[in-house]
Design goal:
5 strands; about 140 residues; single chain; 5 helices; binds 1,3,4-trihydroxy-5-OXO-cyclohexanecarboxylic acid; 5-stranded parallel beta sheet; globular; alpha/beta
Length: about 140
């Protein structure tokens, strides 16, 4: 049976390409998703992608992953990384292993970005590698 991976993008990531390109680069979310989908095809895996600007919708999608055979989650929760106990709790509730990804190196930025509600529960954390970080996370998920 093909592996099933869920990629979650949080708030404002739909603005990639336009949003602070000096920090987040010029690729759009569609560019990133297209590359991830290509990689999934290479591995003959099933990948779902979901973006939302709303915390509750992200919680709902994580809960739904219990019933759609998701084996691994890759999540860039955006600003909710630093604020959301609800997203942390949802990930813990479903018990699906996940990797936390950030395009920027959050540790080089404002102190409020240095704390994550997700990191201590994650299999791993990738920050600062831009879109290549998603790709590395996806390769890991597909290989393990
Ligand atoms: C981000 C970093 C967060 O601090 C920020 O709120 C984002 C994007 C990143 O990918 O670098 O929205 O998660």
């Amino acid at each position: 049976m093909a592996k099933h991976i869920l990629v979650l993008h949080g708030p404002n990531l739909n603005m990639l390409g336009v949003r602070e390109p000096g920090i987040y680069g010029h690729q759009t979310l569609a560019d990133i998703d297209a590359r991830l989908s290509q990689l999934c095809d290479e591995y003959d895996a099933g990948c779902s992608v979901f973006q939302s600007n709303h915390e509750g919708e992200l919680v709902d999608r994580i809960q739904a992953a219990r019933h759609d055979e998701t084996e691994f989650i890759i999540i860039n929760a955006g600003a909710y990384t630093h604020t959301s106990i609800a997203i942390r709790d949802a990930l813990a509730a479903v018990g699906i292993p996940f990797i936390e990804v950030h395009l920027s190196n959050v540790y080089k930025r404002e102190p409020f970005r240095h704390h994550s509600y997700l990191s201590d529960q994650a299999v791993g954390v990738i920050a600062g590698l831009g879109p290549a970080g998603y790709e590395a996370a996806l390769r890991y998920a597909l290989d393990h």
